[in-house]
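Re: the 236-residue chain
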Amino acid sequence: MLIDRKKERIIAAITFPVMLIAIWMVFFYVPQMKGNAGEVLDSSFKIFYFHLSIAMVAYLSFTVVFIASIMQLKANSRKWDMIALSSAEVGVVFAFLVLVTGSIWAKATWGWYWIWDTRLTTSLVLLLVYLAYLMLRQAIEEPEKRARLAAVFGIVGFVSVPLSFFSVRLWRSAHPLMFGGSAYGSSGGGLEGTSLRLTLMVNMLAFALLFTSMLVYRVNNEALKEELDEAKYKSA
Protein backbone atom coordinates (compact mmCIF):
# COMPACT_ATOMS: atom_id res chain seq x y z
CA MET A 1 0.00 0.00 0.00
CA LEU A 2 1.57 3.28 -1.16
CA ILE A 3 -0.38 5.62 1.14
CA ASP A 4 -1.80 4.38 4.44
CA ARG A 5 -5.57 4.37 4.90
CA LYS A 6 -5.43 7.01 7.63
CA LYS A 7 -4.01 9.61 5.25
CA GLU A 8 -6.50 8.51 2.61
CA ARG A 9 -9.37 9.16 5.03
CA ILE A 10 -7.90 12.55 5.99
CA ILE A 11 -7.79 13.65 2.34
CA ALA A 12 -11.39 12.49 1.83
CA ALA A 13 -12.49 14.27 5.02
CA ILE A 14 -10.98 17.54 3.75
CA THR A 15 -12.43 17.11 0.26
CA PHE A 16 -16.06 16.69 1.33
CA PRO A 17 -16.59 20.05 3.13
CA VAL A 18 -14.57 21.99 0.54
CA MET A 19 -16.75 20.52 -2.21
CA LEU A 20 -19.91 21.47 -0.32
CA ILE A 21 -18.61 25.03 0.10
CA ALA A 22 -17.77 25.22 -3.61
CA ILE A 23 -21.27 24.09 -4.60
CA TRP A 24 -22.87 26.54 -2.17
CA MET A 25 -20.80 29.41 -3.56
CA VAL A 26 -21.85 28.64 -7.14
CA PHE A 27 -25.57 28.60 -6.38
CA PHE A 28 -25.93 31.07 -3.51
CA TYR A 29 -22.83 33.28 -3.22
CA VAL A 30 -22.09 34.34 -6.79
CA PRO A 31 -24.15 37.34 -7.99
CA GLN A 32 -26.05 37.23 -11.27
CA MET A 33 -23.75 37.31 -14.29
CA LYS A 34 -24.28 40.02 -16.88
CA GLY A 35 -23.15 40.24 -20.48
CA ASN A 36 -21.34 43.13 -22.16
CA ALA A 37 -24.65 44.87 -22.87
CA GLY A 38 -25.73 44.60 -19.25
CA GLU A 39 -28.21 41.79 -19.84
CA VAL A 40 -28.55 39.11 -17.16
CA LEU A 41 -27.05 35.84 -18.39
CA ASP A 42 -28.94 32.58 -18.16
CA SER A 43 -28.39 30.63 -14.93
CA SER A 44 -26.81 27.87 -17.02
CA PHE A 45 -23.63 29.95 -16.92
CA LYS A 46 -23.12 28.64 -13.39
CA ILE A 47 -22.00 25.35 -14.90
CA PHE A 48 -18.89 27.22 -16.07
CA TYR A 49 -17.39 26.99 -12.56
CA PHE A 50 -17.70 23.21 -12.61
CA HIS A 51 -16.77 22.84 -16.28
CA LEU A 52 -13.52 24.78 -16.08
CA SER A 53 -12.48 23.15 -12.80
CA ILE A 54 -13.18 19.66 -14.16
CA ALA A 55 -11.25 20.44 -17.35
CA MET A 56 -8.21 21.62 -15.41
CA VAL A 57 -8.29 18.48 -13.25
CA ALA A 58 -8.48 16.32 -16.39
CA TYR A 59 -5.33 18.04 -17.69
CA LEU A 60 -3.72 17.53 -14.28
CA SER A 61 -4.60 13.82 -14.32
CA PHE A 62 -2.97 13.25 -17.70
CA THR A 63 0.05 15.31 -16.67
CA VAL A 64 0.49 12.89 -13.76
CA VAL A 65 0.29 10.01 -16.27
CA PHE A 66 3.02 11.71 -18.32
CA ILE A 67 5.33 12.21 -15.33
CA ALA A 68 4.69 8.73 -13.93
CA SER A 69 5.35 7.20 -17.37
CA ILE A 70 8.73 8.95 -17.57
CA MET A 71 9.59 7.73 -14.08
CA GLN A 72 8.46 4.22 -14.99
CA LEU A 73 10.86 4.05 -17.94
CA LYS A 74 13.62 5.55 -15.82
CA ALA A 75 13.19 3.48 -12.65
CA ASN A 76 11.27 0.44 -13.96
CA SER A 77 9.18 0.57 -10.77
CA ARG A 78 5.76 -0.99 -10.37
CA LYS A 79 4.85 1.97 -8.16
CA TRP A 80 5.01 4.44 -11.04
CA ASP A 81 3.09 2.10 -13.31
CA MET A 82 0.27 1.92 -10.75
CA ILE A 83 0.21 5.71 -10.42
CA ALA A 84 0.07 6.15 -14.20
CA LEU A 85 -2.75 3.62 -14.55
CA SER A 86 -4.75 5.06 -11.66
CA SER A 87 -4.36 8.66 -12.82
CA ALA A 88 -5.39 7.70 -16.37
CA GLU A 89 -8.55 6.02 -15.09
CA VAL A 90 -9.47 9.02 -12.95
CA GLY A 91 -8.56 11.39 -15.79
CA VAL A 92 -10.85 9.59 -18.23
CA VAL A 93 -13.76 10.13 -15.83
CA PHE A 94 -13.02 13.85 -15.64
CA ALA A 95 -12.43 14.12 -19.41
CA PHE A 96 -15.86 12.56 -19.98
CA LEU A 97 -17.43 15.02 -17.52
CA VAL A 98 -15.77 17.88 -19.43
CA LEU A 99 -17.70 16.84 -22.53
CA VAL A 100 -20.94 16.38 -20.60
CA THR A 101 -20.81 19.75 -18.82
CA GLY A 102 -19.56 21.43 -21.98
CA SER A 103 -22.47 20.02 -23.96
CA ILE A 104 -24.99 21.28 -21.40
CA TRP A 105 -23.42 24.74 -21.56
CA ALA A 106 -23.31 24.61 -25.37
CA LYS A 107 -27.02 23.78 -25.55
CA ALA A 108 -27.87 26.83 -23.45
CA THR A 109 -25.46 29.11 -25.33
CA TRP A 110 -25.53 27.91 -28.95
CA GLY A 111 -28.74 25.88 -29.03
CA TRP A 112 -26.88 22.65 -29.81
CA TYR A 113 -25.37 20.02 -27.55
CA TRP A 114 -22.49 19.48 -29.94
CA ILE A 115 -20.74 21.24 -32.79
CA TRP A 116 -17.42 20.31 -34.35
CA ASP A 117 -15.71 23.25 -32.74
CA THR A 118 -11.93 23.22 -32.26
CA ARG A 119 -12.03 22.98 -28.46
CA LEU A 120 -14.82 20.40 -28.40
CA THR A 121 -13.11 18.25 -31.02
CA THR A 122 -9.70 18.30 -29.33
CA SER A 123 -11.37 17.52 -25.98
CA LEU A 124 -13.01 14.48 -27.58
CA VAL A 125 -9.66 13.42 -29.06
CA LEU A 126 -8.10 13.77 -25.61
CA LEU A 127 -10.68 11.39 -24.13
CA LEU A 128 -10.21 8.88 -26.96
CA VAL A 129 -6.41 8.93 -26.59
CA TYR A 130 -6.57 7.92 -22.94
CA LEU A 131 -9.33 5.39 -23.55
CA ALA A 132 -6.91 3.86 -26.07
CA TYR A 133 -4.22 3.95 -23.36
CA LEU A 134 -6.44 1.91 -21.03
CA MET A 135 -7.38 -0.48 -23.84
CA LEU A 136 -3.69 -1.02 -24.62
CA ARG A 137 -3.09 -2.02 -21.02
CA GLN A 138 -5.95 -4.50 -21.18
CA ALA A 139 -4.60 -6.05 -24.36
CA ILE A 140 -1.17 -6.95 -22.95
CA GLU A 141 -0.92 -9.66 -20.29
CA GLU A 142 2.83 -9.70 -19.51
CA PRO A 143 3.30 -7.11 -16.70
CA GLU A 144 6.74 -5.73 -17.62
CA LYS A 145 5.94 -5.44 -21.31
CA ARG A 146 2.58 -3.83 -20.49
CA ALA A 147 4.19 -1.29 -18.16
CA ARG A 148 6.89 -0.41 -20.69
CA LEU A 149 4.56 0.02 -23.68
CA ALA A 150 1.98 1.87 -21.60
CA ALA A 151 4.70 4.25 -20.41
CA VAL A 152 5.71 5.01 -24.01
CA PHE A 153 2.06 5.58 -24.92
CA GLY A 154 1.59 7.77 -21.85
CA ILE A 155 4.48 9.98 -22.95
CA VAL A 156 3.58 10.20 -26.65
CA GLY A 157 -0.15 10.56 -25.97
CA PHE A 158 0.48 13.54 -23.71
CA VAL A 159 0.75 15.73 -26.83
CA SER A 160 -3.06 15.71 -26.87
CA VAL A 161 -3.12 17.64 -23.56
CA PRO A 162 -1.43 20.89 -24.71
CA LEU A 163 -3.19 20.49 -28.06
CA SER A 164 -6.55 20.60 -26.29
CA PHE A 165 -5.53 23.33 -23.84
CA PHE A 166 -4.09 25.71 -26.44
CA SER A 167 -6.56 24.89 -29.24
CA VAL A 168 -8.81 27.85 -28.49
CA ARG A 169 -5.73 30.10 -28.53
CA LEU A 170 -4.18 28.71 -31.71
CA TRP A 171 -7.30 28.47 -33.90
CA ARG A 172 -10.53 30.39 -34.17
CA SER A 173 -13.19 28.83 -32.01
CA ALA A 174 -16.74 29.48 -30.85
CA HIS A 175 -15.62 28.38 -27.41
CA PRO A 176 -15.14 31.40 -25.14
CA LEU A 177 -11.61 32.37 -24.19
CA MET A 178 -11.72 33.28 -20.51
CA PHE A 179 -8.08 34.13 -19.84
CA GLY A 180 -5.10 35.38 -21.86
CA GLY A 181 -4.94 36.04 -25.59
CA SER A 182 -5.01 34.03 -28.79
CA ALA A 183 -2.77 33.83 -31.85
CA TYR A 184 -5.40 35.62 -33.96
CA GLY A 185 -5.75 38.66 -31.71
CA SER A 186 -8.78 37.98 -29.52
CA SER A 187 -8.47 37.99 -25.77
CA GLY A 188 -10.32 36.46 -22.87
CA GLY A 189 -12.79 38.58 -21.00
CA GLY A 190 -11.81 37.05 -17.70
CA LEU A 191 -13.84 37.15 -14.53
CA GLU A 192 -14.38 40.54 -12.96
CA GLY A 193 -15.22 40.77 -9.30
CA THR A 194 -13.79 39.21 -6.17
CA SER A 195 -16.76 36.91 -5.62
CA LEU A 196 -16.49 35.39 -9.10
CA ARG A 197 -12.76 34.79 -8.88
CA LEU A 198 -12.99 33.44 -5.34
CA THR A 199 -15.75 31.02 -6.35
CA LEU A 200 -13.67 29.75 -9.26
CA MET A 201 -10.60 29.31 -7.03
CA VAL A 202 -12.59 27.38 -4.40
CA ASN A 203 -14.09 25.15 -7.09
CA MET A 204 -10.67 24.43 -8.57
CA LEU A 205 -9.38 23.57 -5.09
CA ALA A 206 -12.38 21.32 -4.44
CA PHE A 207 -11.96 19.37 -7.67
CA ALA A 208 -8.18 19.15 -7.20
CA LEU A 209 -8.82 17.62 -3.76
CA LEU A 210 -11.39 15.29 -5.29
CA PHE A 211 -8.84 14.18 -7.87
CA THR A 212 -6.23 13.61 -5.17
CA SER A 213 -8.68 11.60 -3.07
CA MET A 214 -9.75 9.46 -6.03
CA LEU A 215 -6.15 8.92 -7.14
CA VAL A 216 -4.98 7.85 -3.68
CA TYR A 217 -7.97 5.50 -3.32
CA ARG A 218 -7.37 3.96 -6.75
CA VAL A 219 -3.59 3.55 -6.25
CA ASN A 220 -4.12 1.88 -2.88
CA ASN A 221 -6.69 -0.47 -4.38
CA GLU A 222 -4.28 -1.38 -7.18
CA ALA A 223 -1.52 -2.04 -4.64
CA LEU A 224 -3.88 -4.18 -2.55
CA LYS A 225 -4.88 -6.14 -5.64
CA GLU A 226 -1.23 -6.83 -6.39
CA GLU A 227 -0.61 -8.00 -2.81
CA LEU A 228 -3.56 -10.40 -3.04
CA ASP A 229 -2.33 -11.76 -6.37
CA GLU A 230 1.11 -12.38 -4.90
CA ALA A 231 -0.42 -14.11 -1.87
CA LYS A 232 -2.49 -16.38 -4.14
CA TYR A 233 0.59 -17.18 -6.23
CA LYS A 234 2.64 -18.14 -3.17
CA SER A 235 -0.13 -20.31 -1.71
CA ALA A 236 -0.71 -22.15 -5.00
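Residues 194-235 form the longest helix (42 residues).
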